[in-house]
């Protein structure tokens, strides 16, 4: 056949250590129909400071692949919530082959068409300091190692695959240099059986051909197969095929067979709504068969039309054959559901004349739930069955429910109640008088049609048997939700987006883990949560001494800022707790802004007071600049160090000016340096170092409490003494006379705590 190669790529993205599914990077691809091979080229490289990160450590990268919906991954081996079905996926770990770059290749032969999703992440951080890395990198103090991941997809697909029409024979000659012939046939709804047959095999002894059939994609070596040399007639039957999908038929020649082999191939579809009849020998119109537009260029034939014309090459022609009537199970009417969209990933499926459903004893009740492509695969499909025990009339009745994708399973075998066949597997639910409630949750379900088949069976000594005259009543509820139980009280359901694809995931807190934040193996106890809340809140009481010192020294504006900081820091940390010990007096965002603003303003006003400058203008300037900085980046480390360094610069200029003017060090007394300035500066530096380099999410509650104590303590040491009001008018003008200069007494510039400690009146030489 003719191959066409398509190429797809995605923008590189920075990978993060795994904490929850919200921390992974998700990539969405679409594989076209008739693809015979898909090759993913997985490119990973390191960056540090805008250049290649040759010095960055090697960290393994895990990539997950899944068709139809995102992968449900569990790298931390946590527990899933009850009644949760975990679909499988394929995982691949990339190792580094070069210092700053590595490439992995993942091949899929005959992949399923449609949506494919790749999820990638770094391993979980084990106690590493990573909270302030972003701020340090922005300051140039630390160059963060970034691991970038870029997937590329190359697909090779066949074009103009021969289409088999049900009820017609296709003749084919396989040349010596050809090894196989590929066909496809569309299977509409209400088809219970697909029969593929190879006829009139000539050119070699014993018909050395393999017949392989597979749904949705070209067959593989492990697909359903039949050796025509050992079976006569060469017929391959598939019961309960997938509805509204293409089935691919591969006729493959045995190795080492010379010469040309000619044969005929035909397909017959059994309509389960008419089990005694096969599909008619004419091809119905495309509208009646609901065929996709990729059916082919020949188009469909209406009733009474002639068969499709022969291929111009003369290698294919269709001849009507007589219909067969193989044994088939009877299929039952499928009741639709009404889709009611409430919000993103919040969809309820209502049953007409429901939600109570009657399950008769002689036949199953079948319902269909349609999930829209792409839109519905990022949530959780929830199903709930509740049995009305009063409707059983005292009989020991069990209602079984089978949820299957793309085809209903309505087997009449009562010996073994199962929702599986050789080609598909479903989900089994059951309710009875002792257990009247059953739930099922499917995270990230595959889109398309989901069929629920309900059967009622009576329990006897010999197992399950059909009930005689009991109609069970079941309450059925089906809905789509963003997360499982909204992630509970210890989690937050987040709506995430990758390009144009939306999906939801839980982000857990207070040590809880798992897909629904239900794994309490590392959860914080109530006592621990209470202790952390009390430490963070009560540590702000340390601001009481600085407030008292400021009031005593007549620094009323500074005292007001300290009270503002103490109040909002206390209630912000009471509202910011991850567990259930939470108390909020305002909106969280308001409390956070006021806490951050108060903390930065406390540093600002303290340093400005140490500089002994006009406070009002600088206070207003600091409040406006800090509000702007917090609005730009509330968590940046520059928000603390930037204003602090700016204020320290102003103080340094003021002190230097006084030192030059007085011709001695300012403040002039060693006691002020030894007992106030140096201890206060050391305490403040220790607080900044703890905040920037030690504080992590694991030790936040006690390191941040120490931060509160140190900052408040440093303010008590650094706040300068307030001079008497009469001495705040500034230095008197110099008076020169008789060759001498009179120096005025400025006690506030000596840095003394109490002006009464010393009285200095000096006469300086001019």
UniProtKB/TrEMBL annotation:
<dbReference type="GO" id="GO:0005886">
    <property type="term" value="C:plasma membrane"/>
</dbReference>
<keyword id="KW-1133">Transmembrane helix</keyword>
<feature type="transmembrane region" description="Helical">
    <location>
        <begin position="555"/>
        <end position="574"/>
    </location>
</feature>
<keyword id="KW-0472">Membrane</keyword>
<feature type="transmembrane region" description="Helical">
    <location>
        <begin position="523"/>
        <end position="543"/>
    </location>
</feature>
<comment type="similarity">
    <text>Belongs to the TMEM8 family.</text>
</comment>
<dbReference type="Pfam" id="PF12036">
    <property type="entry name" value="DUF3522"/>
</dbReference>
<dbReference type="InterPro" id="IPR021910">
    <property type="entry name" value="NGX6/PGAP6/MYMK"/>
</dbReference>
<feature type="domain" description="EGF-like">
    <location>
        <begin position="506"/>
        <end position="517"/>
    </location>
</feature>
<feature type="transmembrane region" description="Helical">
    <location>
        <begin position="638"/>
        <end position="661"/>
    </location>
</feature>
<feature type="transmembrane region" description="Helical">
    <location>
        <begin position="673"/>
        <end position="694"/>
    </location>
</feature>
<dbReference type="InterPro" id="IPR000742">
    <property type="entry name" value="EGF"/>
</dbReference>
<keyword id="KW-1003">Cell membrane</keyword>
<feature type="transmembrane region" description="Helical">
    <location>
        <begin position="700"/>
        <end position="719"/>
    </location>
</feature>
<protein>
    <submittedName>
        <fullName>TMM8B protein</fullName>
    </submittedName>
</protein>
<keyword id="KW-0812">Transmembrane</keyword>
């Amino acid at each position: 056949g003719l191959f066409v190669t398509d190429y797809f790529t995605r923008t590189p993205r920075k990978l993060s250590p795994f904490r929850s599914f919200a921390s992974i990077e998700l990539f969405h691809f679409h594989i076209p129909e008739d693809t015979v091979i898909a090759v993913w080229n997985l490119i990973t490289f390191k960056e540090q400071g805008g250049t290649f990160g040759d010095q960055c450590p090697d960290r393994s990268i895990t990539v997950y692949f899944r068709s139809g919906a995102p992968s449900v991954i569990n790298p931390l081996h946590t527990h899933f919530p009850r009644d949760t079905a975990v679909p499988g996926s394929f995982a691949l770990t990339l190792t580094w082959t070069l210092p700053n770059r590595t490439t992995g290749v993942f091949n899929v032969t005959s992949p399923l068409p449609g949506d494919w999703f790749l999820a990638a992440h770094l391993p979980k951080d084990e106690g590493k300091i990573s909270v302030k890395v972003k701020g340090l990198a922005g300051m140039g103090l630390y160059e963060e190692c970034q691991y970038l991941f870029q997937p590329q997809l190359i697909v090779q697909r066949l074009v103009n695959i021969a289409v088999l029409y049900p009820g017609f024979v296709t003749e084919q000659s396989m040349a010596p240099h050809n090894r196989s012939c590929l066909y496809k046939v569309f299977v509409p709804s209400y088809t219970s059986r697909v029969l593929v047959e190879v006829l009139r095999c000539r050119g070699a002894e014993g018909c050395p051909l393999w017949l392989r059939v597979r749904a949705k994609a070209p067959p593989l070596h492990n697909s359903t197969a039949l050796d025509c040399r050992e079976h006569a007639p060469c017929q391959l039957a598939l019961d309960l095929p997938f509805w509204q999908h293409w089935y691919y038929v591969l006729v493959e020649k045995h190795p080492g067979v010379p010469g040309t082999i000619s044969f005929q191939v035909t397909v017959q579809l059994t309509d389960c709504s008419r089990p005694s009849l096969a599909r008619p020998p004419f091809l119905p119109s495309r509208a009646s068969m609901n065929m996709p537009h990729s059916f082919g260029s020949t188009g469909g034939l209406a009733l009474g039309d002639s068969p499709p014309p022969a291929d111009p090459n003369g290698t294919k022609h269709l001849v009507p054959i007589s219909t067969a009537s193989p044994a088939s199970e009877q299929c039952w009417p499928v009741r639709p559901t009404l889709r009611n969209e409430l919000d993103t990933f919040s969809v309820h499926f209502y049953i007409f004349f429901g939600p109570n459903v009657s399950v008769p004893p002689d036949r199953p009740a079948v319902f269909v739930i349609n999930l829209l492509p792409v839109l519905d695969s990022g949530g959780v499909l929830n199903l709930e069955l509740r049995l009305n025990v009063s409707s059983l009339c005292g009989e020991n009745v069990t209602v079984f429910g089978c949820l299957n994708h793309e085809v209903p399973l309505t087997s009449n075998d009562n010996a073994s109640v199962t929702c599986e066949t050789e080609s598909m597997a479903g989900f089994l639910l059951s309710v009875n008088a002792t257990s009247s409630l059953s739930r099922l949750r499917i995270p990230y379900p595959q889109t398309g049609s989901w069929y629920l088949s309900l059967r009622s069976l009576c329990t006897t000594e010999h197992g399950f048997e059909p009930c005689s005259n009991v109609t069970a009543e079941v309450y059925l509820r089906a809905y789509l939700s963003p997360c499982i139980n909204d992630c509970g009280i210890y989690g937050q359901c987040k709506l995430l987006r990758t390009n144009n694809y939306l999906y939801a995931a839980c982000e857990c807190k207070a040590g809880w883990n798992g897909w629904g934040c239900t794994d309490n193996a590392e959860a914080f106890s109530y006592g621990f949560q209470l202790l952390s809340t009390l430490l963070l809140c009560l540590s702000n009481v340390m601001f009481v001494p600085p407030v008292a010192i400021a009031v005593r020294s007549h620094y009323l504006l500074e005292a007001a800022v300290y009270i503002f900081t103490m109040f909002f820091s206390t209630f912000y940390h009471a509202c910011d707790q991850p567990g259930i010990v939470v108390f909020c007096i305002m909106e969280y965002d308001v409390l956070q802004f006021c806490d951050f603003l108060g903390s930065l303003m406390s540093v600002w006003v303290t340093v400005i007071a140490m500089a002994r400058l006009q406070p009002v203008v600088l206070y207003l300037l600091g409040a406006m600049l800090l509000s702007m900085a917090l609005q730009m980046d509330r968590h940046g480390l520059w928000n603390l160090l930037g204003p602090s360094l700016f204020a320290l610069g102003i103080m340094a200029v003021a002190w230097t000016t006084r030192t030059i003017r007085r011709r001695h060090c300012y403040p002039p007394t060693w006691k002020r340096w030894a007992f106030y300035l140096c201890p206060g500066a050391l305490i403040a530096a220790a607080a900044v170092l703890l905040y920037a380099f030690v504080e992590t999410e694991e030790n936040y509650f006690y390191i941040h409490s120490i931060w509160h104590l140190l900052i408040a303590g440093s303010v008590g040491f650094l706040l300068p003494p307030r001079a008497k009001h009469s001495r705040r008018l500034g230095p008197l003008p110099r008076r020169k006379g008789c060759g001498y200069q009179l120096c005025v007494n400025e006690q506030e510039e000596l840095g003394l705590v109490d002006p009464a400690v010393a009285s200095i009146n000096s006469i300086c030489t001019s």
